[in-house]
Amino acid sequence: MSFSIFGFNVSLPLVGAIVAILVGRELWNLTYFWRRGIKCSRPLPLLGNILSCTKGFYSYIYTCQQNYGNIFGLYFFRSPLIVVCDPDVLRDVLVKSFSKFSNHYQFFLKNRPLDQGLLDLRDQRWKDVRSVISPTFSALKMKQMSPVINECCDVLVTNLKKKQGEDINVNSVFEAFTMDGIAKCAFGLQVDSQNNPDDPFVKHAKRIMDGTVESPVAMIAGVFPPAAYLFNALDIALFPAETRKFFRDVVVKAIELKKRSAGNERRDFLQLMMNAHNDDEHDSRSKVIKDDNDLHNLIEDHQDKHVSNAQNTKTQLTMDEIFAQAVLFFVAGYETTNVTLGFLAYALATNPDIQDRLIEEVDEVTPTRDSVDYNSIAKMSLLDMVVCETLRLYPPAVMGDRCCSETHTVNGLTIEKGVQFLYSIYNIQRDPTLWPEPEKFDPSRFTKENRANRHPFAWIPFGAGPRNCIGMRFALMEIKMAVVRILQKYRFVPSPKTDIPVKFGTGNTLKPDGGIFLRVEERQ
After folding, report:
1. Binding-site annotation, residues
2. Counting CB atoms within 10 angstroms of each CB, which of 83, 142, 333, 393 has the fewest?
3. 281: Cβ–Cβ under 8 A, 6 or more apart, which residues?
4. 92, 37, 45, 95: which is closest to 68 by C-alpha?
5. How many CB atoms lie within 10 A of CB 507?
6. Looking at residue 51, what is its pLDDT?
7. Can you tell me where the transmembrane regions are (predicted)?
8. What mean pLDDT is predicted for residues 175-201?
9. Which CA distances in Å does 268 have to 76, 130, 149?
10. Structural element, H or E, at residue 413
């Protein structure tokens, strides 16, 4: 028996056999975790558990942990993922056995040339590029960038003055501030998004932030991975081609301008990357002595790290790699920083006693505008504890991931080669066995004594191990400088529109869908 399609005779039994094979293969794939004794919520064919995450990824993972324990499975479209909320397993995977988990998962779509960024680079090339870029995020380089952030804080404080007595969506205010800071520090651009939301940089930057796995292109590529090859060939990606071209032109023009201005360079991220492979400081960075008064060192050193001190000073970055790192710096730092600032403002407004104590520290250590720099904020102990507790309760990245390159067994869990490994930052940092009264905002959790007595992987907002967040120091500096400059003149208070407790959003971060509304009052 056969039938005709477009003039071709097709055997009905053959079609039936092919369909049966495809269905059988899909059903076999959906039993992956069942066959291994790992609990998993029921997935849908082709889509896996992706639709269950539409009301908030953090919420779905949190519910799964309550139902299945600290280790369970889920499907990202058709790909099985092992999710872990156990800090002991994380310590092994992210540090001790890092060689087997050194790469991130790569999505089907290629955002060329953004796939040359640190998040997508793999194996030896990742090591080489990270080696070149790491010195640009040292304490020394942050000190050089801090005046640029202080300039952005000037505009932030001025705009807040205009909004006194109003119900302010602090997320919108901090979004503009963060965009200005990264535009200056990454690209050397003067972008006043706090006063000019129609700036082309702002328009294209927001387009990048709108690219998610829920877009139609991503959904098609996820359900039918072969379609990704076609999309990649046609240069169809998560980010619009027009936007990628805009940022590439920005980087190319900025580099040309810097080359013409040799000897009078501004110390932004792009300039530091260009200088990294022939900078004298690059050759001597392993000899830098850490400042015992820099509290950022406590965060940097609070976990075991197996990071080689060997550096490849001969590594040269390609133009695509420079472009990709600059855009990645923006993408990774923009949303995470403004989300953290929003929640920090909320925490201070709803905990006025802590805000009062922090204001006292601000007045004592940084009483004037010009006293606010990297050195001063790095010594403020209460400020550091408040920021760390905010990052615990409201981590801007709720999940981390690795891809297993060699079958590995830890604590009875076998992770097979090629399987993606996810770890829930949100779940671990709210685990009552690790954090008594986990819902309470309590900065005293981060005294030196309490840090020393806690599991090193109980607090991981920047990831952990050799592949942790390279921009940690910059993020902390930007957050702290903004908070200090605001508290020098104002204080946060709840408004009639403030949700208490705060309502988390349905996106990939905890950021409330409608933002966080507060008021600012001039200090008496």
Report:
1. 469
2. 393
3. 135, 138, 140
4. 37
5. 17
6. 80
7. 6-23
8. 77
9. 38, 17, 11
10. strand 413-415
Q: Which residue has the higher pLDDT, 328 or 68?
A: 68
Q: Which residues contact 308 (CB under 8 A, 6 or more apart)?
A: none
pLDDT tens per residue, range 358-396: 999 999 999 999 999 999 999 999 999 999 999 999 999
> Which residue ranges make up the annotated binding site for heme?
469
The candidate with the shortest Cα–Cα distance to 297, out of 142, 445, 146, 430, is: 142
The ranges assigned to domains in the chain are 34-287+313-522
Strands (E) in 23-92, as ranges, are 71-76, 79-84
Residues 6+ apart with CB under 8 A from 248: 113, 323
Amino acid identity at 374: Y
The per-residue pLDDT for 283 is: 43
Task: Tell me which CATH homologous superfamily contains domain 34-287+313-522.
Answer: Cytochrome P450 (1.10.630.10)
pTM summary value? 0.87
Distance CA 435, CA 397 (A): 19
Q: Is 80 exceeded by the pLDDT of residue 26?
A: no
Q: Can you tell me the mean pLDDT for 132-136?
A: 84
Range from 57-71, 117-131, 218-232, 475-489 carrying the lowest mean pLDDT: 218-232
Which amino acid makes up residue 459? W
- The total of other beta-carbon atoms located within 10 Å of residue 106's CB is 14
H or E element in which residue 402 lies: strand 399-403
Virtual CA dihedral for 275, 280, 281, 283, nearest 10 degrees? Answer: 100
Q: What is d(CA 469, CA 449) in angstroms, rounded to the nearest whole number?
A: 25
By CB neighbour count within 10 A (0-12 exposed, 13-18 middle, 19+ buried), where does 268 fall?
A: buried
What is the length of the chain? Answer: 524
Task: Please give the single-letter amino acid code of residue 499.
Answer: D
Q: What is the pLDDT of residues 433-453, one digit of tens each?
A: 999 999 999 999 999 999 999
Under 8 Å between Cβ of 192 and 200: no
Residue 266 burial class via C-beta count within 10 angstroms: exposed 0-12, middle 13-18, buried 19 and up: middle
Please state, in angstroms and rounded to a whole number, the distance separating the CA atoms of residues 495 and 499.
9
pLDDT tens profile 139-163 = 888 888 899 899 989 989 998 998 8
Lowest mean pLDDT among 36-40, 268-272, 499-503, 512-516: 268-272
Q: How would DSSP label each residue in 97-157? A: TGGGS-B----SS--TTGGGSTTT--HHHHHHHHHHHGGGGSHHHHHHHHHHHHHHHHHHH
Establish whether the linkage from the previous residue to 496 is cis, with ω within 30° of 0: no
Beta bridge partners of 421: 82, 402
Treating both helix axes as pointing N-terminal to C-terminal, what angle do 472-487 and 381-393 enclose, rounded to 10 degrees? 110
- As a whole number of angstroms, the distance between CA 121 and CA 418 comes to 16
CA 368 to chain centroid: 32
Question: What's the token pair of residue 77?
Answer: 């479209």
